[in-house]
Design goal:
The complex is a heterodimer of chains A (309) and B (324). Chain A has 13 helices and two strands. Chain A is mostly helical and 309 residues long. Chain A has a domain of 198 residues. Chain A has a two-stranded antiparallel sheet. In chain A, β1 and β2 form a beta hairpin. Chain A starts with 13 loop residues before the first helix and ends in a 9-residue tail after the last helix. Chain B has 324 residues and is mainly alpha-helical. Chain B has one domain: ABC transporter involved in vitamin B12 uptake, BtuC (Orthogonal Bundle), CATH 1.10.3470. Helix content of chain B is 74%, strand content 1%. Chain B has 14 helices and two strands, in the order αααααααββααααααα. Chain B has a two-stranded antiparallel sheet. In chain B, α3 runs antiparallel to α11 and α4 packs across α12. The chains are: A mainly alpha (309), B mainly alpha (324). Chain B: It is found in: Cell membrane.
């Protein structure tokens, strides 16, 4: 089936793919520094945590949910991973916590039938408190091997971009080639039809949120490697950024439509816009306003059948 | 021949059952407030003094006014996360001094801008059928970003005296802010009970498709709730300016979360207006009281956030298990 067709479940509309390409072409003409090696490696390091967290948000959006707690999970991860100096235990614990928070979100949505916004809003607030409790102010020290690894290069390519591409490939494979992926689409598109065909939505929803939490924690680990310390509020922007990226990637929040490539294109668009505005020298606050306008335009193109949240 | 006996439920049992039905129908905020007052009575009796309760009522008025609009929006199956943006815009209008108009005109302009932002939200959500979460979040960043960018090279101006009087003044011992809250709350509560709009709102909330098929203008109803939400948020921001008298862009962030929490605690959930107007109002007061209590216990920002998150989850859990 044509992945760009109107009935495709990939959500890859022409604008989704053409936006990052147009930005790359435009920026390489408008800003001379854009194609600099330094700028490109900087760009990939900037978007790597966002891309990994966005893939988690994608899985949650595919089952018709939304995860507002990604930002808090990222903050908590940087705190946990950098509070125990020089050990891998902190990183393992952080990943475990991300997974547990995701499972709690999934159970609240699927078993307790709470609305995803309310369920993840409360976990977002709670986890933010937990992060502040773990590390009241920015500080701590990441295990020394982590920054060394994240900032190194393998065969001339930065590790952050390899991690990013690896995650995109894994999620793309998961969605296109496994039963789990097929069930995600089935539950997201029509839960009742899915259950009539023998797919129980509970397990799938819990698994989607758990994977979302795990990806958020992975993004937090990459971010810890990049900044080399913990910060209890560093993730605050990520909930909105991942939602923006997912929307720009043609993923529908009502569920069942979206793809890893689309989400990656969304991240690329967002990252290129920020990078370009930095290079051109646009004020940081106007940058966030411009991102908001872009999000409004992108979301207005997604006509849905339901109205409201 | 045995006489036919009619099994009659004893009056006392029936009354008990009715009492149980009544009690289990009350929103969680009433019970939460009761528990908080008991805890305060047992551990911090100073927090029960009338003077302090009135001070908390004054703080709660700001959240309470926002909650009115948010509860309407939530009842129509939408959500308003643009509150922080509206607050920033209103504060900028009345304190920046960039607009050379007398204070009453500025107040009018602030309310108008709130209504205008609500209208834009409503139009994008209903006409373009975009997700309300994303639209209102995007609106919040657009507004905050552009206002902060416009005002960062200027000193924040003085709060007009009129607003300072309304925000922190008192008539007798009653805070004016609390009077404003009640003065807005009562007309809303009464008109939702008596006017057609209240019926429409409940119909749209419980089943939008059925409401549309029955000829109810469900899109317009949802748009109107967003306009009301913009208006009440602007009013709350005016009260806020008067009570803290310093512009601060972070206060709006807390207001979004707290107003949603108050709505849920008040027994109002997406599409269900069971808690009416009073439930969320009590929820707003309960949350404000809770924060005072937590500060009294010496809990920092970390503990406050954790307790707040747990309480939202608990209220939502109570609601879902009750509605089964």
């Amino acid at each position: 089936m044509n992945p760009f067709g109107p009935n495709s479940r990939s959500g890859l509309k022409p604008y989704v793919v053409s936006m990052p390409i147009a930005l790359i072409v435009g920026l390489s003409f408008a800003a001379t520094d854009f194609l600099n090696r330094g700028n490109l490696s900087n760009l990939s390091a900037q978007i790597a945590p966002l891309a990994i967290a966005t893939l988690g948000q994608l899985l949650v959006a595919l089952v018709g949910g939304i995860d507002l707690s990604v930002g808090s999970v990222i903050s908590l991860t940087t705190c946990v991973a950098s509070a125990s100096v020089g050990s891998t235990a902190g990183i393992a614990l952080a990943l475990l916590l991300g997974c547990v928070i995701g499972i709690a979100n999934g159970l609240a949505v699927s078993v307790a039938r709470m609305h995803p916004i309310i369920a993840t809003l409360s976990s977002m607030t709670f986890v933010q408190g937990l992060a502040l409790y773990w590390l009241p102010t920015a500080g701590g020290l990441a295990p020394p091997f982590l920054p060394a690894f994240i900032n190194s290069t393998i065969a001339g390519l930065p590790v952050s971009i390899l991690l990013l591409l690896g995650c995109v490939i894994v999620v793309g494979w998961l969605l296109a080639r496994t039963r789990f992926g097929l069930r995600l689409y089935a539950v997201g598109a029509h839960p009742r039809n899915a259950s009539l065909n023998g797919v129980t939505d509970r397990q799938i929803i819990v698994a989607a949120y758990a994977a979302g939490g795990l990806f958020a924690a992975c993004a937090g680990v990459v971010l810890t490697g990049r900044i080399g310390a913990g910060d209890p509020v560093i993730g605050a922007q990520f909930a909105l950024a991942t939602i923006t990226a997912v929307a720009l990637g043609g993923v529908q929040f009502s569920g069942g439509i979206g793809s890893a490539v689309g989400a990656f294109c969304g991240v690329l668009t967002l990252g290129l816009m920020r990078n370009g505005m930095n290079l051109v020298g646009i004020d940081a606050f106007l940058q966030s306003a411009a991102t908001g306008v872009l999000l409004l335009i992108a979301i207005s193109f997604q006509r849905r059948t339901i109205i409201g949240f | 021949m045995p006489a036919i006996t009619v099994q009659q439920t004893p009056d006392s049992q029936r009354a008990a059952r009715r009492l149980y039905g009544f009690l289990s129908n009350q929103p969680p905020s009433w019970y939460g407030l009761g528990i908080l007052l008991l805890v305060a009575w047992a551990t911090r009796p100073a927090l029960l003094s009338p003077l302090l309760l009135l001070a908390i009522l004054k703080q709660g008025a700001i959240l309470g006014v926002v909650t009115i609009g948010q509860s309407l929006v939530v009842r129509s199956r939408s959500i308003d996360l643009s509150i922080s943006g509206v607050v920033v815009v209103v504060i900028w209008i009345v304190t920046s001094g960039a607009i050379p108009l007398p204070v009453p005109a500025l107040v009018f302009l602030a309310l108008l801008s709130g209504a205008l932002i609500g209208t834009i939200n409503g139009l994008i959500i209903t006409r373009l059928r975009a997700s309300a979460v994303v639209v209102t979040l995007a609106m919040a960043i657009v507004l905050t970003g552009s206002v902060v960018a416009a005002s960062q090279y200027h000193q924040p101006g003085e709060t007009p005296d009129l607003l300072r009087i309304v925000g922190s003044g008192r008539i007798g011992s009653l805070p004016i802010a609390a009077i404003v809250w009640v003065a807005v709350l009562i007309p809303f509560a009464l008109s939702l009970r008596t006017c057609v709009f209240g019926r429409y709102l409940d119909a749209v909330g419980s089943n939008p498709t059925a409401a549309t098929v029955s000829g109810i203008p469900s899109l317009r109803v949802m748009s109107i709730t967003h306009i009301f939400s913009g208006l009440t948020t602007a009013l709350a921001a005016l009260l806020l300016v008067g009570s803290v008298s310093v512009g601060n862009t972070n206060i709006g962030q807390d207001m979004v979360l707290n107003s949603l929490a108050a709505v849920i605690l008040g027994g109002v959930s997406f599409g269900s207006g069971k808690g009416r107007m009073l439930g969320p109002a009590v929820g707003a007061f309960m949350l404000t009281y809770l924060f005072s209590l937590l500060i009294g216990f010496g809990l920092g920002a970390a503990g406050q956030a954790m307790v707040q998150g747990a309480i939202i989850a608990l209220a939502a859990l109570v609601f879902t298990f009750r509605s089964r």
